[in-house]
Design a protein that fits this description.
Length: 430
Amino acid sequence: MIERYTRPQMGRIWSQENKLRKWLQVEVAVAEAWAELGRIPPAALEAIRRATYDLERWRLYEQEMHHDFNAFLRTVADSLPPEAASYLHLGLTSYDVEDTALSLMIQEAAQLLVEDVDQLREAIAQRAREHKYTVMAGRTHGVHAEPTTFGLKLALWWDDLGRHRQRLLQAKEEMAVGKISGPVGTHATVPPEVEEKVCARLGLRPAPTSDQVLSRDRHAYFLATIALTGASLERFATEVRHLQRTEVREVEEPFVSGQTGSSAMPHKRNPEKCERICGLARLLRGYALAVTENIALWHERDISHSSVERVALPDACIVLDYMLDLFTQVVQGMRVYPERMKANLDITCGLIFSQRVLLALMEKGLPRPMAYEVVQRNAMRAWEQGLSFRQLLGQDPQVSSLLSPQELDALFDLQYYLRYVDQVFTRVGL
C-alpha cells in the first residue's frame, strides 16, 4: 500500500479479519431475527452466537472452492454442531451478508475520516489564528493582485474542509443501509421482518428495496466524496508548493534534521510531502470513476463490481486517511516567513495598490475609462522600468490635479486591506 503508512486503524477496518468478523456479525443477527420469529430453536441460536471462524482454514477452503463466502460458511460450520449448522445462513444469498457487512465497514471508515478532517481543521485553525494579520501578496493567475493575509488563506482551507466534513457525514448516512432480501431482492426466502430486525440490531436502515445487491450509486457517492476531499487537499498542497518555490520562499513544508532533498544537490529542500499529496489525489479520482462504473450491473446483479470494490474501497479510504494525516503534519510543522512575504509585496514597486488609485480617481469625477488608462499607463511604466508607482502617480498631472500627496499616501496603506479580517474570521467560525 503506502510506504511508511503509520496509521493502522484504517488498515484494520479493511483487513480480511475484520471482513470475516463483520460477516459473522451479520449471520448472528440474522439467526437472532429468525429465532424471534420462531424459525430457529433456542439451542441452535446459542450455538450460532458462539460460532467462530478460522482465518487460515478459510484461506485453504477459498483456494479449494474459489468462492470466498462459501469458504467462510464452511469454516463457521466447522465450529457448529450439525443440528445448529443447518440454520446458518437460512434463506440468504451471499450478498445479503456481504453488502450489509460492507456497509458496516464503511461506517467505521467514514467515521475515522471525519475524525481525520477534524484533526486537520484544528491544526489549520491554530496556524490561521497565528497568522491572522500576516500580510502577503494575493495572487491571481500566479501574478500579484492585492494584499491579503496568510491567515485568511488558511481560514479558507478550514472552511473548505468543513464542507467536506459534512459531505463525509452525509455519505456515511447514505451508506448506513443493509439488505436481507434474498437472491433477487423479492424476500421470497427471507421476509422483510427479518431484514428490519437485522438492520436494527446492526444500527443500519433496511434499504427500501434492493435486488441481489444494494444499488451502487450509494458506494459511488461515498467514493466521490473521498475524491472531492482529496482534490481540496491537492489544492492546499499545490499552494504550499508554489509558495515554497525559491523565487517566492514564503512558506516551506517541514524539513527535519537528517532529511535530504536530492541525491545530487545537497542544498535542495523540496516540497515532496505536498507533491505526494497531489499525486495521490489523482489516484482517488481514478477510484471514484471506477466505482461509478459499478452502478450499471446486469439485471438483478452481476459480479463485475466486486473486483473493483475489493481494490477501490479499501485503497481510497486508506489513501485519504494517509493524505489527511500527512497534510496535518505539513500544517503543524510548516515554516512561514512573514519578512519574505513583506519583501515580495514590495517587488512590484507599489502596483498592488492600483485599484485603490483607480477608485479614488473615479470618486473625484474622472470617468472610469480615463481613470483606468491613467493608472495603467503609470503601472506599466513602473513594472517595466522598476520605478516607484507612487512617485510616478505624483508626477502625473492628471493624477496630481485630483489627488493631493496626502491622499495618494493614504491609498498606499496596507492596513486598508486588513479592515475586515476579524469579520471574516468570525463568519467562518474562527
